[in-house]
C-alpha cells in the first residue's frame, strides 16, 4: 500500500479512486480507438461519469458512436461502479496476493467478484440462448462478434446501468429475454456500489442458505466461513419485500390502466418497467411516457423506495406505527421458547 493511500480515510479514498477511474475512462473513450470523430472530450467525460455512477444517462448513442473497444471500456466502467467501494478499495490496497497462506482479499470481496462474474457470464449466455434460438429480430444481420458483444453489454447494463446498444421492445427482444433481463435488474449491483437492486451478496447468501439446507447443515457456510443468522434473515427480508413491492407496483399500474379504459401494454411490459424503476436501471420499453399520472407516480415511489432500500422503508413505517423504537432495547432482552415449523 502506498503512502498516499494510507493517509486517506475510507470516504476520501472512495472519492479519489472514483475520480481517477472517471478520468482514465474519459481519456480512453475520447481516443479514436474507442469512439468516432463526433465524440469530443466533454461527451466522453459525461459518458464515463454516467457509467461509473451506474446512472445510464448519455449524450451519445453508445451503440453507434462507440467502437467495439469503446463499448468494452464502457461493459468495465459500469462493472467498476457496481462493485462498490469496499471491493475496489480491497483490490487496490490488498491485491490478490497471499500472505502467510491466507488470501488477503476479504470474503465479501471474493464473494462479490465471483457472483458478479457468474451473473455476467450467465446473463450473456442466457440472452444468447433466448434470442438466437427464438431468432430475435435484434440479432438479424449482426456478425457473430457483434452478437456476442451485444449480449455481453446487455448482461452488464441490465444490472442497473441503463445503457443500451439496441432498441428494447417486444418486437426486438423475446419475452424470455426480457424475463432474463428482469432477473438481472432485480439482482442489481453490489453493496456500497452506485447501482440498485437487491444486491449480489443478498443472492449469494440465499444460494448458500439453500445449499446448506440441501446438505442438512444447521448453519449457512460460505468458503469455510459461517454466515450469521441475522445476515441470512436480512437477505430473505430484502428479497421477499422487494418482490412483493414490485408486484404491488405492477398490480396498481395494471388496475389504473383498466379503469381508464386504456390497455396499450402487456403485463410483461408493465412488469419490466416496474422492475427497472425499482432497481433504478432506467431501461424502458416505451411504457413510461404513455402512462397516466397515477402510473408515473407509482414508478416514482418505486424509484425512491428502490434507492432508499426496502428494509429501511418498512422498518421506518413499522416503528412509526408501533412505536417500537422506544421499546427496542427492552424487547431485545426478551427470549421466547422455540418450536419446529414444517415448510
Please identify the structural class as seen in this structure.
mainly alpha
Radius of gyration over C-alpha positions, nearest whole angstrom: 22 Å
CATH third-level topology of the domain at 1-98: Helix Hairpins
What sort of overall outline do the alpha carbons produce when their principal axes are compared?
Answer: globular
What's this entry about, in short?
With 343 residues, the protein is mainly α. Helices cover 61% and strands 3% of the residues. It has a domain at 1-98: Helix Hairpins (Orthogonal Bundle), CATH 1.10.287.
Structural key phrases:
Helix Hairpins; single chain; 343 residues; two-stranded antiparallel sheet; two-stranded antiparallel ribbon; mainly alpha; globular
Q: Would you give an account of this structure?
A:
The protein has helices spanning 3-7, 10-29, 41-52, 62-65, 68-73, 77-83, 85-94, 107-133, 144-157, 175-187, 200-214, 229-259, 267-278, 293-308, 310-322, 328-332; strands at 98-99, 102-103, 220-222, 225-227. By secondary structure, the chain is mostly helical. It has a domain at 1-98: Helix Hairpins. The strands form two sheets. It has a two-stranded antiparallel sheet with strand order 1-2. It has a two-stranded antiparallel sheet with strand order 3-4. Helix 7 packs across helix 8. The model has no long low-confidence stretch (mean pLDDT 81).
Amino acid at each position: 500500500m502506498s503512502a498516499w493511500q494510507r493517509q486517506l480515510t475510507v470516504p476520501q479514498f472512495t472519492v479519489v479512486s472514483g475520480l481517477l477511474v472517471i478520468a482514465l475512462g474519459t481519456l480512453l473513450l475520447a481516443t479514436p480507438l474507442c469512439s468516432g470523430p463526433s465524440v469530443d472530450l466533454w461527451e466522453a467525460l459525461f459518458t464515463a461519469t454516467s457509467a461509473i455512477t451506474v446512472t445510464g444517462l448519455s449524450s451519445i448513442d453508445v451503440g453507434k458512436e462507440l467502437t467495439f473497444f469503446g463499448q468494452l471500456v464502457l461493459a468495465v466502467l459500469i462493472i467498476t461502479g457496481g462493485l462498490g467501494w469496499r471491493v475496489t478499495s480491497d483490490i487496490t490496497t490488498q491485491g490478490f496476493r497471499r500472505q502467510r497462506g491466507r488470501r488477503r482479499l476479504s470474503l465479501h470481496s471474493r464473494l462479490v467478484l465471483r457472483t458478479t462474474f457468474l451473473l455476467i457470464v450467465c446473463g450473456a449466455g442466457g440472452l444468447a440462448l433466448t434470442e438466437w434460438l427464438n431468432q430475435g429480430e435484434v440479432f438479424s444481420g449482426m456478425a457473430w462478434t457483434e452478437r456476442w458483444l451485444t449480449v455481453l453489454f446487455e448482461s452488464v447494463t441490465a444490472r442497473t446501468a441503463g445503457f443500451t446498444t439496441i432498441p428494447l421492445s417486444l418486437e426486438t427482444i423475446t419475452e424470455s429475454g426480457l424475463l432474463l433481463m428482469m432477473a438481472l435488474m432485480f439482482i442489481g449491483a453490489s453493496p456500497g456500489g452506485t447501482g440498485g437492486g437487491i444486491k449480489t451478496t443478498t443472492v449469494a447468501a440465499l444460494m448458500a442458505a439453500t445449499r446448506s439446507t440441501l446438505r442438512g447443515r444447521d448453519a449457512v457456510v460460505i468458503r469455510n466461513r459461517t454466515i450469521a443468522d441475522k445476515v441470512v434473515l436480512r437477505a430473505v427480508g430484502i428479497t421477499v419485500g422487494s418482490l412483493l413491492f414490485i408486484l404491488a407496483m405492477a398490480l396498481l399500474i395494471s388496475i389504473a390502466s383498466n379503469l381508464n379504459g386504456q390497455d396499450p401494454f402487456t403485463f410483461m411490459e408493465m412488469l419490466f418497467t416496474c422492475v427497472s424503476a425499482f432497481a433504478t436501471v432506467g431501461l424502458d420499453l416505451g411504457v413510461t411516457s404513455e402512462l397516466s399520472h397515477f402510473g408515473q407516480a407509482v414508478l416514482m415511489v418505486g424509484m425512491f423506495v428502490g434507492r432508499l432500500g426496502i428494509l429501511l422503508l418498512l422498518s421506518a413505517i413499522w416503528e412509526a406505527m408501533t412505536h417500537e423504537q422506544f421499546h427496542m432495547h427492552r424487547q431485545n432482552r426478551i427470549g421466547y421458547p422455540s418450536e419446529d415449523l414444517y415448510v
